[in-house]
Write a structure and sequence with these properties.
The chain is α+β, with helices and mostly antiparallel strands. The chain is built from 16 helices and twelve strands. The strands form two sheets. It has a six-stranded mixed sheet with strand order 1-2-6-3-5-4, sandwiched between helices. Strands 9-10-8-11-7-12 form a six-stranded mixed sheet, with helices on both faces. A hairpin with a 4-residue loop joins strand 4 and strand 5. Helix 3 packs parallel to helix 8, helix 9 crosses helix 15 and helix 10 packs antiparallel against helix 11.
Length: 457
Amino acid sequence: MTFLMTTIDRTTPPAPGPITEIRFPSFVSTTLSNGIPVYLVENHEQPLVSVTLYLGGGSSRDTAATQGLASMAAEMLNKGTATRSATEIAETIDFVGGSLGASASWDASVVSTSVLSRYLDTAIGLQSDIVANPVFADEELSRIKTQRIANIMQAKSDPGYLADVVFSKGVYGDHPYGFEAAGTEASVSAMQSASLREFYATLRALPGAFFIVAGDVTEAQIVEKLSAAFGSALRGQSAVGASAVTSIPALNQGPRITLVEKKQAVQSAIRVGHLGIARNHPDYVPLYVLNMLLGGYFNSRINQNLRERNGFTYGARSYFDARKQTGAFVVSTEVRTDVTAAAVLEIRNEIEAIVTKPVEPHELQMVQQYIIGSFPLSIETPQQVANRIASLVLYDLGADYYDRFRDQVAAVTADDLLRAAKAHLHPDALVIGVSGDANALETELRAFGEVDVKESI
């Protein structure tokens, strides 16, 4: 018997195969009798249903004196209603093996439940009760305030948290996006039940509420159930999304550096960036590709520079935190104290390089293949699809946005990236937030501009 030996060149990766056509899963868009939109991802593979209510306002509704109010109001929703105590609510949803909770992001407040489909009536009943009839009881508020203040105090021992706070303040100034979403010790201490009730009443009256439903339920069933449960609790509005209360500040002129003291720290937390774009900006896709190349995945330029070539860190990343209003461009990493200034310099150098020189074709192709190939993994489950649909609605992206996404990524050119980089990256106007040993860092950081040293936040 004769065997043929084949030589395989393992120094060159194989060429990628053709792109498989993937369409975003279909979903139903309908409206309840009270005018609230409902978006349904029907899937009967498992007997599970999730129902999520989005209210058109979140932490961007806080003020400087009431930081944390939106998140506190959301947390208090399932801590007692006019007919159920917090314990009764928890025991009822636990008995059917479900979950029920509420939270606030910057641009929306969310009340969600997930349960086996045969217990859907129980879950929706609880959900509608906490939306329509929360009492914000003094004793529950006192307990949660104590817990939250303890969490805030503990967070201040984390260099990453400190760097995040001063960076956000440097980027947004007095805009609510620059506040601490969980609140400060002072703002949480000052919260009263009456202020929570007033805030929540305003929140429920805002335009932009909608439901996202995913799982083992039909359109007819969910419309009937939600109409019966929420018919008088909510009223639809013609506008989508709530208007912001404060304008985003202008991009700062020149660098802005804040150093938070973390005495004798052996490591520094670094945040570098500036104002970015809103989620529905027409340049979002080229900037998504650009950022992936710059700092969005393991083979990105910033990670390869700081981790692989220089050994400064275990990892570094960048991202555009695109929100309903203008979000931020952020580079985030933690490095040894003795290489902090060097790491900031390398970050700035990488931003300058991508603004001034077109990317190489092979580098662009690798990033496009990564994004296109990994996208189907993000829409594998009904809940993943539901989350994507929520972004379509919340940020006014259009129903066919994700059908077009991979084609748009594939169509991005090196010229598109260079144009987007020049328009939206500003290496001469960086906000730099660092938490670390001020005695060891201040002098070296002055190479980038005037340094504002804070003993605490």
